[in-house]
Structures are given as structure tokens and as C-alpha cells.
Design brief:
With about 220 residues, the protein is an alpha/beta fold. It is about 25% helix and about 20% strand. It is built from 5 helices and 10 strands. It has an 8-stranded mixed β-sheet with strand order 3-2-1-4-5-6-10-8, sandwiched between helices. The protein is globular and about 45 Å long. One of its GO terms (molecular function) is oxidoreductase activity, acting on the CH-NH group of donors, NAD or NADP as acceptor. It comes from Bifidobacterium cuniculi. It holds the Pfam family NAD_binding_10.
Length: about 220
């Protein structure tokens, strides 16, 4: 497949690129800086907000790995994703989004999200809230794009091992048989590329909010 990874130099982006390349996909890394820290076969230096339809129209899948943590940059989660949605409207290109766990529901009635639970760490609430807003905007305005939003488990481990086994679930917080909600960046990348490779098949989760947890 022809896969574009936007914001590819980030820690998740780099692992998604590696996973996709290792499986024989043709991957282009879109980076803002001169440096390329990925193993992508092709590299394009261009700011996300300068991307146009022409830049992305020939890919099968675009993976949005954008992430911002500084308080002043948090609104860019919504702004950046909506820019990608706007330029992909009407294009035959699938959009996969690296999401956040805070947007997952903790009840079957879908009335409470993880970010709103009493024990959710205060230090992560601003980021989680920005990602909730990001998903809500995508769900509201993404009718003309074949998107899939993939949230990690609650404990998203940057340096965790790649086990090669994970559970794909929906928009409710899911735990494994050990009552854990945990996933490594590497296993998350595996799940992301799994979903990318479902593109064009009946198994693709179009306009769905997914989550992934270690098996």
C-alpha cells in the first residue's frame, strides 16, 4: 500500500513508519524539520498546515500522528485534524488518526468518558480534553472522509515492548484478561498498520472510533 504518515518524526509516528515499512508497504514520511528520524522510503519536508489535496491524493492511506503537549499548542489537535479533513474531502484516501484514551467511554450508555472520571490524573486532563474535542469535531464534520480514530489504552507506554498481540475494541475502555488497560507505542503502531491494511476490504472500520489494548 501507499501510506503517508504525517508528523512522522514523533515517537508514535516513527514506530508506525517502521511497522509499515517492515511489512513491505511504500511509506512517505511528512516532516516539518530538515531532519528525518524515520525509516520511510520517501520523505517530504512540509508543515502539516501547508499540505494540500495534491500532496495526499495519490496515497491509499494517510495516518495523522500529530501530537502537541505544550498548553498553548493544545488547540492544534482540532485545527490540524480539520485541515486534513478539509483537504481530503472527496479524495479516495483513507484517514487514520492517532487518538487519545481520554475520549473512550467507561460506561455502556456512553455518558461518561475516561477523562471525566474522578481518578483521571489532573496533569493529563488538558491534553485529554484537547483530544476529546478533536474526536468530537471529526465525528461532526467528517462525513465526506473515510476516517478511523484509534485510541490507545489508558496506560500508553512509550518504551514498552512489542508483544505482537493486542485486542482491538470499540469506543469503550477495554481491559485484557488481567484487568489491564495498557499498550506499548510499538504494539499500538502494529494495530494502526493492521487497520491501514484493511483499507478496501469489508473489515475496514470506516468512520468508527476504535481502541487497542495489550492482549
Amino acid at each position: 500500500m501507499k501510506i503517508a504518515v504525517v508528523a512522522a518524526n514523533g515517537r508514535v509516528g516513527r514506530l508506525v513508519v517502521k511497522e509499515a515499512v517492515d511489512r513491505g508497504n511504500d511509506v512517505t514520511a511528512f516532516v516539518r524539520e530538515d531532519a528525518n528520524d524515520t525509516v520511510a522510503q520517501h520523505v517530504v519536508k512540509k508543515d502539516l498546515f501547508d499540505l494540500t489535496t495534491d500532496d495526499l491524493k495519490d496515497f491509499d492511506v494517510v495516518i495523522d500522528a500529530f501530537g502537541a503537549w505544550a498548553p498553548e499548542a493544545l488547540p492544534l489537535h482540532v485545527k490540524s485534524l480539520m485541515h486534513l479533513v478539509d483537504i481530503l474531502k472527496g479524495a479516495d484516501v483513507r484517514l487514520l488518526v492517532v487518538g487519545g484514551a481520554g475520549s473512550l467511554y467507561v460506561d455502556s450508555e456512553r455518558k461518561m468518558r475516561l477523562v471525566d472520571t474522578p481518578d483521571f490524573p489532573d496533569e493529563f486532563k488538558p491534553l485529554a480534553s484537547a483530544q476529546v474535542a478533536q474526536f468530537d469535531e471529526l465525528e461532526k464534520n467528517g462525513d465526506e472522509v473515510e476516517w478511523t480514530y484509534i485510541s490507545p489504552a489508558a496506560d500508553f507506554q512509550a518504551d514498552g515492548e512489542r508483544t505482537g498481540e493486542c485486542i482491538l475494541a470499540g469506543d469503550e475502555l477495554t481491559t485484557n484478561d488481567r484487568d489491564e488497560s495498557v499498550i506499548s507505542y510499538a504494539d499500538y503502531a502494529l494495530a494502526m498498520v493492521d487497520e491501514a491494511e484493511r483499507t478496501g476490504t469489508p473489515d475496514a472500520h470506516i468512520r468508527e472510533h476504535l481502541s487497542v489494548v495489550r492482549k
